[in-house]
Design goal:
alpha/beta, about 30% helix, binds zinc ion
Length: about 350
């Protein structure tokens, strides 16, 4: 098979020919039809992810068709159209037994713990637990674009944030995660105030239904502005970027007993934000993380897509070839362009 491989961190990946994978007894091999390019792939490539062993094939936002099935798999057949969460469960640990595969003790992460989907084929473990069937009407590029940013936002807004109709959601950072969160919150009946430093991103936020926008580059006190617009603070606030300023602004923009959801990854200099714990105590704030979404929750999201309430295809950006993914991956440290870049030509 053709695949993108790197042999050292930060060294340019290469398009190479590798043996086709064979399925684990409990797994399948998926012929990849689309795979998203994500900032997490860039973090892995430069060496920020200790799960990665070299040489490595990246890629974790995939959709495709089952090409081979292991002998112990009962739910899937060759030819089924599928996608997979970026965190797969083992099926044996207490978290998996409780239905929380997204925080499994022995995670399977294609493109991190194992070779990923920047390839014609990818091996997926524990298929009965981890695969998600794709509706016929959902194209592969859109399905792949759900893989990481969209499902994480869905879990952050719906499951962790528990945003209900009429409540205010503040979204700090309007890249792929933030725009997905706005779409999902608006579909849930929430009112959204969006924060970013880019007028283009704020324009998109408005198009997706944000009622108010704040340009953080022009406003001194962002959290104060959110509290003013929302009449006392947001019920739920997301740091969708992953930076000290957006994290702290998000917590400070909450009303009493509000809920902060950390979605953006906090890496490097941003690893230890000065969280205002005094305010967390006196206002009884809740602080949550959100880490992907388990396969059994995809149904709720797919139903909203099929019903026309969510339109993730609006967030699909450039469609590129496997070879072009090398340059796209190496450039992901720059602020992402509008929309998810998806490899659709293998
Ligand atoms: Zn597990
Ligand atoms: Zn991703």
């Amino acid at each position: 098979m053709k695949a993108i491989l790197y042999e050292a961190f930060s060294a340019p990946p290469k398009l190479v020919s590798l043996p086709d994978p064979t399925p684990e007894p409990h797994g399948v091999v998926v012929e990849v039809r689309a795979t998203g390019v994500c900032r997490s792939d860039w973090h892995g490539w430069v060496g920020h992810d200790t799960d990665i062993e070299l040489p490595h094939v990246p890629g974790h936002e995939l959709a495709g068709v089952i090409a081979a099935v292991g002998r112990d798999v009962t739910r899937w057949r060759v030819g089924d159209r599928v996608t997979v969460p970026f965190v797969g469960g083992c099926g044996h640990c207490p978290e998996c037994h409780a239905g929380h595969q997204q925080v499994c003790d022995n995670q399977f992460q294609p493109g991190f713990t194992h070779w990923g989907s920047f390839a014609q084929f990818v091996s997926i473990h524990r298929a009965d637990l981890n695969l998600v069937a794709l509706p016929e009407t959902l194209d592969f590029a859109t399905a792949a674009s759900l893989g990481c940013r969209f499902v994480t936002s869905f879990r952050a807004v719906v499951d962790q944030g528990r945003v209900s109709a009429g409540q205010w959601l503040a979204v700090h950072g309007c890249g792929g995660v933030g725009l997905s969160a706005i779409m999902i919150a608006v579909a849930s009946g929430a009112r959204v105030v969006a924060v970013d430093i880019s007028e283009a991103a704020l324009g998109l936020a408005r198009e997706l239904g944000a009622e108010a926008v704040i340009n953080a580059g022009e406003v001194e006190d962002v959290a104060g502005a959110v509290r003013e617009i929302t009449g006392g603070g947001a019920h739920v606030s997301l740091d969708a970027l992953g930076a000290v300023s957006t994290c702290v602004n998000s917590i400070n923009s909450l009303r009493k007993r509000g809920r902060h959801i950390q979605v953006g990854l906090m890496a490097g200099d941003h690893s230890f934000p000065p969280v205002p714990m005094g305010r967390v105590i006196s206002h009884e704030l809740e602080i949550y993380g959100s880490h992907g979404m388990q396969a059994h929750r995809y149904g709720a999201m797919l139903e909203m897509i099929l019903a026309g309430r969510l339109s993730p295809e609006k967030l699909v950006g450039r469609q590129i070839s496997l070879e072009q993914s090398i340059e796209a991956l190496m450039g992901m440290d720059r602020f992402e362009g509008v929309g998810v870049t998806v490899v659709t030509e293998f």
